[in-house]
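User: Okay, second chain of the day. Same drill as before: sequence in, structure tokens out.
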Amino acid sequence: MARSALAPSEYDVQGRLNSHSAKAVPAPVALAFESSGSRSARGALRRSFRQSGTKRVTDEQHRVPGPGDGDGLGIPPVAGVPWQAGLALAPPINRATMAPLPWTSNGASESAIGTSSADPGASEPARPVDQNYWQAAGQFRRLVLVGLVLTQTYLATSLMATVLPYQGREPLEIAIVTLFAILFGWVSAGFWTAIAGFAIVLAGHDRYAISATAVPDAPVSPAVRTAVVMPICNEDVPRVFAGLRATYESLARTDLAMQFDMFVLSDTNNADSRVAEVEAWFETCRALDAFGRIFYRWRQHRIKRKSGNIADFCRRWGRNYRYLVILDADSVMSGECLSTLVRLMEANPGAGIIQTAPNATGRDTLHARAQQFASRVYGPLFTAGLHFWQLGESHYWGHNAIIRVEPFMRHCGLRRLTGRGLLSGEILSHDFVEAALMRRAGWSVWIAYDVPGSYEEMPPNLIDELKRDRRWCQGNLMNFRLSVMNGLQAAHRAVFVSGVMAYAAGLLWLAFLVLSTILLAVQILRDPQYFVAAYQMFPLWPEWHPEWALTLAGVTAGLLFLPKLLAAIAVAAHGAKPYGGGARLFASVLGESVVSMLLAPIRMLFHARFVVTTLCGWGVAWRSPPRNDAETTWSEAWRQHGTQTLIGLVWAAAVYSLNPGFLWWLLPVLGALIVAIPLSVLSSRVSLGRKLRDAGLFVIPEESRPPREIRTTMEETRRADGALPGFVEGVVDPAIVGLLCATGHVRPRPKPALRARRATLVRAALQRGPDDLSPADRMRLLCDPVALAQLHQNLWTAPHLRFAWTGVRASRTARPALRPAQ
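Assistant: Same drill. Structure tokens below.
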């Protein structure tokens, strides 16, 4: 039944609330008032766990307690209101340490290694089991990659030097050739990675693939427990719990379901989202009968962002689990995928992290659909190629991956980077660093590129994608400082460098284009120079070779486009029907190539700005990205792309005035900058994305044949959208107040200063109403069960005050009933 702050009679509490008596408040609120005694909501909950005589919650405890179940706590029954004593908010704390090692440590000292503390019954080894059979092959493959890239880059750079008037002998030309060599080497590395991936995908396997090491239905010891954790912070609550529910239901259909627990780890500091999270957690648990299986933990102090949230979990409950699966707020994983990851870990006791290759799905904007298509078609080639070169020293992307808890806690604690400025302080992009530390300690890190059932979502538009890139850019630049860390493997040093190049390439490309334009101006405005070197005996005639330039441009374009064509061929070889058919598949590849070509110069300018501003010490706020199909307004596009459009117009006019023929060379770049505003707006339109889907373009299998997990996620998101409560309901609705009291902590003997602050806060809330409360005051109310209960009681015993609050949301849409578990 839907909850409404204006219809309390549904919960059989109207008579109690109208009696103007303190004893009439609902039982959950009454529990918060017991602060003068020795128990609190959370304390009573923990005692109920301890009295059960086991750390695990039994099947009987999974049910929602009914009337009378709270009698042992002295709580009178109220129809329809569950008791905190039966709400399994979190398991009992089983503390362990996760102290970061010094950056200068080699990661494998005896002091850092001891007996395992995680699930001793499972006999987890403290040291990694020697399974480095792949190392020789990995080193040989990487040597081959380096040789191919260097050879190809040398040939292309030599050709580039001959294109220039003085064959790369002038200082300006030397700078251009140097930049070209770096950029071409970066493109070449991506090209050969795609070629290696194409060979693996076409062959269907790689002898060193981690996925081939486990028997599909191999038995797993009941002592092996896995925690699935989802760190969130001010996220789209309906989408978060829809994905969580889809994952839980899928996992329930597997034979390992009872060996998994799920945790929502909240760092939310928005009062509306905080209330919605608690309500959504309770409703999800009630619908799935999952109390004691899905837990909710809210951190009051947001230390170290996501990595700190994970570390907090490990310190509290890491001992209880052998493995840890980390999800993002937009992640969905099938139960089969999760079970496979556990079996892979069991079959490979030397593996510390196994990363899946998530498929992007769930978006309808044109921009997101193009990105989803690219990820689905080209992604398998590049992830297989990364596996081919890296093997057990692979990437870890921070989500949709399984981690061995014990070595993670011992070796992957993150220290602050010393110094001042934005390249110091807390680690931001923690995933690359954790993978490097895990491998430094001797544990392998793998990409399970061919394990299906892992999903994520893409940013809905270009501006949101660039906001995400701004955060990642700062994090990757910080991580570059660790590339010289003691004991680090060469493969992970290369990962740090590639993380920097992902954004520095934009700055280098911009510098290359600017210097090329300057060279054009110099050649036109300055008299020819025939002697450009000291002690030069014979004149050097400046000579352009446009035909060689065309050859070089064609080679570069081939390196960029050929992997996309090979990816489409690989998809067609395995069946193109899920992608709309063969003709539409190749038409979509062509269309995506045009879109990416237009967006590349825009990304170039933004990435160049990100690198420069980060190095100059200009910070950026880390906010959660949107989890829905957000469209870009024209005003927002003008603010974000107006300067780029001006740069494109001025640059084009300058080049045209110098040499109209040269403008054709720069037109793909400058033209994209000039149309950046309409391109950004139109590519964010949902209507265009859906029209292309109806036409069979940019179609992916997750749309043509959506897995059950994706269907469930979409259905639950639509069902709950716009119906979750906010801060006002969290103060007025008796049942939601009870839930919030259960998640709070009541001090048995509050000091006078705390009592005074609490009274001041309640008084201010009554006088000012919800709209005039600061965000900090709202959160303080939700964090203090006694203050929240006092405010709630005052509102229900004073109708004129209650109207000032409930009038804010008098027309709130009732929440639809959740679908029962299937």
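The beta strands are 226-232, 260-266, 294-298, 323-326, 332-333, 351-356, 359-360, 401-404, 444-448, 454-456.

User: Thanks, on to the next one.
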